[in-house]
Amino acid sequence: MTGGWRGLFGRRRHGTAVALLTDPFVDAERMTPEPDALSLRLDRIETLALAVYAEYGLPTRRGHYRKGPRAAHWRWVAERLSAEERFALVLARPPEKGWRHGALEDIGAHETRKPRLVEAARLLAGVAALRRRLREGAMAEDIAAALTLGDDWRALHDAQTLRAASRLSLRPPASTGRGRTPKSRA
Prior knowledge:
Layout: H1 16-21, H2 37-55, E1 64-67, E2 75-78, H3 83-92, E3 100-103, H4 104-107, H5 115-136, H6 140-165
Antiparallel strand pairs: 1-2, 1-3
């Protein structure tokens, strides 16, 4: 018997041994994970809150900002700052002299006369906190926070949609052309 078992299972292909030796997880680190439903929802919440920021002329780029005493706009400082760097900035430009400092999710909260900005800032802070906790591995409290955040986002979204859809303007009634309003007789 020449050949033995070799012919029984067909011919061996070139490269099969190479395919068996390659590690399927080598490229997994380079691949971007597919976003899950929670990440997509957080992205939508953040996008809406940033649209409110843009509507009022606030920045929308992630990072830390400062605003001078007579400045009209927030100035971007850096994307990330350590606690020591933030403290050094506050010492160099103290709030007592009119300087204001904050991260993107904080600067809308300074505008207390504009409740939509305060709400957008709260949503951005909630999204940032939830993403941070998800990276750290927390679960139960995050789901509760996500549900509350979703409800808040829905309320802001509905208010934004209603506001955009109905641009109602109230005007005084048109005059009758007589110049006087009729007096009622008693």
